[in-house]
Specification:
Length: about 160
């Protein structure tokens, strides 16, 4: 369908109407995007919280007191993941490459893209200094391992 315009004013009116509708639809799209992102985030947060803040899916009931820390067991990330029950609640020292630091919710990063490291020490109620650590660095993490794949760090050293 073709439309003819009788004057320059008609063309200007049409252009204004198109701009107005574009702005209105843009605002509506932005509002919907925010609403959708908020809804999805709110729906996923309980799953994220359970998985990352309380990583205790390896046992039916957590011990009321943790075993005392012993000398750290040097272990590779692969060995830790292949037999997590052998290291559950034990003090381990694992070396690997840091990733996802600052990119995930909470005080976590990945070591060798396999092991989650929490750099808040819950037992001592203190933050572990990571000011000199960045993504891509090689680091050694010492701390308590919670099966299946999380170390609660007590020390993080850049290699």
């Amino acid at each position: 369908m073709t439309q003819t315009f009788s004057s320059h004013g008609d063309v200007m009116d049409l252009q204004r109407e198109i701009r107005r509708k574009t702005i209105i639809f843009g605002v509506i799209a932005a509002i919907l995007a925010v609403a959708l992102a908020t809804t999805v985030s709110a729906a996923l947060y309980p799953l994220i919280e359970e998985r990352f803040f309380y990583p205790s899916e390896s046992s039916d009931q957590e011990p009321t007191t943790l075993p005392p820390m012993s000398e750290a067991i040097p272990v590779s990330a692969d060995a830790l993941l292949n037999e997590p029950s052998n290291y559950h609640l034990k003090r381990v020292a694992v070396s690997g490459k840091v990733s996802q630091l600052g990119l995930v919710r909470g005080p976590y990063f990945l070591l060798d893209e396999k092991i989650w490291v929490c750099y808040y020490n819950h037992e001592q109620g203190m933050w572990i200094d990571i000011s000199n650590v960045k993504n891509g660095d090689d680091a050694t993490v010492t701390g308590r391992f919670w099966s299946p794949d999380t170390i609660y760090a007590e020390k993080i050293e850049k290699a």
